[in-house]
Design brief:
The complex is a heterodimer of chains A (114) and B (112).
Chain A: E1 5-7, E2 10-13, E3 19-24, E4 31-37, E5 44-50, E6 53-56, E7 65-68, E8 75-79, E9 88-95, E10 104-105, E11 109-113
Parallel strand pairs in A: 2-11
Antiparallel strand pairs in A: 1-3, 3-8, 4-5, 4-9, 5-6, 7-8, 9-10, 9-11
Chain B: E1 4-5, E2 11-14, E3 19-25, E4 32-38, E5 45-50, E6 54-58, E7 61-66, E8 71-76, E9 85-92, E10 100-102, E11 106-111
Classes of the chains: A mainly beta (114), B mainly beta (112).
Chain lengths: 114, 112
């Protein structure tokens, strides 16, 4: 189990509920990324952490989306007051420090909002 | 115009043939280029990275980069049915930005 681990694998919530998605990166990986992948589309960037610092959150679609990585390891993506358009696969990726380091992805959390 | 463009396919090739997957990008400052393979319901898996003009070979895979034409391609030789998947092209921009920008992916079908 040396890969990126995400939980839960599947999440069903009613519109208006809050959800929290967890990502456990590869040990030693400084950089952590969240992406959103809609059906039939490529992943779209949400936010990026280097250690505990959130250096780029330009992809978060609204202020209902919030991410944290308080100890520089595990990260949580929280979505408040979920909407149907939030239904997607949420992918977490991690990489070593360095610009050309490749990102390695977890299996994602498939979120369905009813 | 999308930042990274790929033909969505499907691209159908017979087993043993060469599959050619293409990608164009709009940001001339892009520095790093990646090909990921994604099976249905699975996460993207990195198969190739390329950073300078020319060809890079790894087993049956060859990535080709032409920065002047803003074009990157992936060749898969001796295609196998197990290569059937969606291939995502991803581009990283200037040094200050770590995010990957993905194309929509090309679906490859290799028939036995």
């Amino acid at each position: 189990g040396a890969g990126v681990s995400q939980s839960p694998r599947y999440k069903v919530a009613k519109r208006g509920q809050d959800v929290a998605l967890r990502c456990d990166p590869i040990s030693g990986h400084v950089s952590l990324f969240w992406y959103q992948q809609a059906l039939g589309q490529g992943p779209e960037f949400l936010t990026y952490f280097q250690n505990e610092a959130q250096l780029d959150k330009s992809g978060l679609p609204s202020d209902r989306f919030f991410a944290e990585r308080p100890e520089g390891s595990v990260s949580t993506l929280k979505i408040q007051r979920t909407q149907q358009e939030d239904s997607a696969v949420y992918l977490c990726a991690s990489s070593r420090q360095g610009f050309n380091q490749p990102q390695h992805f977890g299996d994602g959390t498939r979120l369905s909002i009813l | 115009q999308k930042e990274v463009e790929q033909n969505s396919g499907p691209l159908s090739v017979p087993e043993g043939a060469i599959a050619s997957l293409n990608c164009t990008y709009s940001d001339r400052g892009s520095q790093s280029f990646f090909w990921y393979r994604q099976y249905s319901g699975k996460s993207p898996e990195l198969i190739m990275s390329i950073y300078s003009n020319g060809d890079k070979e790894d087993g049956r895979f060859t990535a080709q980069l032409n920065k002047a034409s803003q074009y990157v391609s992936l060749l898969i030789r001796d295609s196998q049915p197990s290569d059937s998947a969606t291939y995502l092209c991803a581009v990283k921009g200037d040094t200050g930005f770590q995010k990957l920008v993905f194309g929509t992916g090309t679906r490859l079908l290799v028939s036995p």
